[in-house]
Automatic annotation (TrEMBL):
One of its GO terms (molecular function) is structural constituent of myelin sheath. It is a multi-pass membrane protein. InterPro entries: MAL, Marvel, MARVEL-CKLF_proteins. Pfam families: MARVEL (PF01284). Belongs to the MAL family. The keyword Lipoprotein applies. It is found in: Membrane. Keywords: Lipoprotein, Membrane, Transmembrane, Transmembrane helix. This is Myelin and lymphocyte protein. Coiled coil: none annotated. The chain crosses the membrane at residues 12-30, 42-65, 77-98, 118-140. One of its GO terms (biological process) is myelination.
Length: 145
């Protein structure tokens, strides 16, 4: 499909929750105190990378750059496979950081950041699930083309 009809086909409709969940991970991790730069840096890289590439891929679909070629289906399946793997690793790392940073005292500011980290973990796993579902249907579409 081309144009806005991209948003009416099932696997491509998943671009919207990918944007929402990935953007929320990006915002939530950026708004908290980054205690483990290497681990949370990977989470930020994954969320920005996937957000940017999903935007680019969807814009190319909107413009009709794929021209109906089956190679674009392979690109879509490959990208969503890599993105699902990246997001799974980022979600596990963010969960590990969140468990490590659990507040031990009654500091309200620490508890607020802890809640934001929990929300980032939840949205990272939701983004992972969305990318896995999109990957599965993209692979089925690629196999049938």
């Amino acid at each position: 499909p081309t144009g806005f009809s991209v948003l009416t086909t099932f696997p491509d409709l998943l671009f919207i929750p990918e944007f929402v969940f990935g953007g929320l991970v990006w915002i939530l991790v950026a708004s908290t105190k980054v205690a483990f730069q290497l681990l949370q840096g990977w989470v930020m890289f994954v969320s920005v990378f996937c957000f940017t590439l999903s935007t680019l891929l969807m814009c190319l679909y909107f413009c009709g750059a794929h021209g109906g070629k089956s190679s674009w289906i392979a690109v879509d399946a490959f990208y969503h496979s890599v993105a699902a793997l990246f997001y799974l690793s980022a979600a596990v790392l963010q969960a590990s950081v969140t468990i490590t940073l659990r507040p031990t005292n009654d500091d309200a500011a620490q508890f607020k950041m802890y809640q934001e980290d929990i929300a980032a973990v939840v949205f990272a796993f939701l983004a992972t699930l969305t990318y896995v579902i999109h990957k599965g249907f993209s692979l089925l579409r690629w196999k049938s083309s």
